Amino acid sequence: MKPIESLVRDNVRNLKPCVHGAEVYGAAEESGFKTEEILDFSSSVNPLGPSQKALDAITGAFGKIEAYPDSNSNALRQILAEHFGGSITKDNIVVGNGSTELMYLFAEAFLRRGEKAVMAAPTFGEYESAVRKTGECVKFVRLGGNFQIEAQAFRQEMPGCKLLFLCNPNNPTSKLIPQKTLTEILDTALSQDMLVFLDEDFLEFIDDEKSRTMIHRIDRYPNLFILRSFTKIFGLTGLRCGYGVANPEIINVLLCSKIPWNVNCLAQPAAIAALKDEEHLKVTRALIKQEKAYLQKELGQFSGFCFSEPDANFFFIDIRNTNLTANALKHRMLKQGILIRDCSSFVGLNEFYIRVAVKTHEENVRLIDAFKKALKAV
């Protein structure tokens, strides 16, 4: 028989796995700690974990495991429509097996052979992976000063592209796109018949989320698809549940393209319960605001750290003045049972950037103490 590699599609043969935070299993194997002993600052999810109401809903759904789940997550789509209100209906929403499924589904559904996608550098790596899996090309737009997204830089690269991927706030830079800039980019995309994939996964940690979300602007931008998930602020990370909001034509394409039964029978009721628990979200946002201020002050004491105030629930830090690489600092921290994100895998970044999440006060104190020990030997 021929080598298996010779039977693989060219675009799949050249794929490389995307690097992520939250690799606690590999970190445990490397460090000798148990997974539950590692304090994970590499993953920017709710430090309080899921809502108790969501956990109760999971328990209540155990008796339904022998049955197939609702293939299109209709009850969840209806609750989401009611949550957003206005002109948003169930027909504006698609639910996926985590937001990542929807990234790949979107690229697969809309990119034809020879068409290009454009995105920031740096930004979340799965956008690129989703495009390259289709066999098509990616154009990167280098971010401006202080890693800010600039409309003019994007407008220069957008002509001839089919898809535009944006992340707001951006990952890993923790920067919001200014509303004026975002509107200019969206107007340009609309005038050029480009589809826009706008990832708002981290926007729910922002105080003025309701005024910044573009969900209620899909009537103005029929080419816009907005991504959200139940991973970040809702803390249902392991259940894999995300959703997208767009005009019904886009949604129908994705509903027809996705695999059946893509969201399991535990994730759907858990997501519904989590969405309804507004008190848990309120407490979470208050904690994040308080602890961001604490970390802003404490991280600022390290002369080798250079960073600006984050918009999202994580800090993006240039550590070149410590004379350590991100990988070296990561290993020093891991020896203390703390995992941070080495950002060198992001396109557009060198080996001197790290990302750390905002967690509970007790955990943040441990982070600062570990940094002191890790940097003391430099």
Please, could you describe this protein's structure?
The chain is of the alpha/beta class and 378 residues long. The chain folds into 2 domains: 144 residues, Aspartate Aminotransferase, domain 1, CATH 3.90.1150.10; 226 residues, 3-Layer(aba) Sandwich (Aspartate Aminotransferase, domain 2). It is built from 15 helices and 12 strands. The protein is globular. It starts with a helix and ends with a helix.
Q: What does this entry show, briefly?
A:
By secondary structure, this protein is an alpha/beta fold. It has helices spanning 4-7, 10-13, 24-31, 52-60, 74-84, 99-110, 125-133, 151-157, 179-191, 209-212, 248-257, 267-276, 278-299, 326-334, 361-376, and strands at 39-40, 93-96, 116-121, 137-142, 163-167, 195-199, 224-229, 242-245, 314-318, 338-339, 341-342, 353-357. The longest helix has 22 residues, at 278-299.
Global structural class: alpha/beta
Based on DSSP secondary structure assignment, what is the total number of beta strands?
12
CA-CA gap between termini: 55 Å
- Could you state the order of secondary-structure elements as H and E? HHHEHHEHEHEHEHEHEEHHHEHEEEH
CATH class of the largest domain, named Alpha Beta
Average per-residue pLDDT, rounded, comes to 95
Question: How large is the radius of gyration?
Answer: 21 Å
Count of helix runs = 15
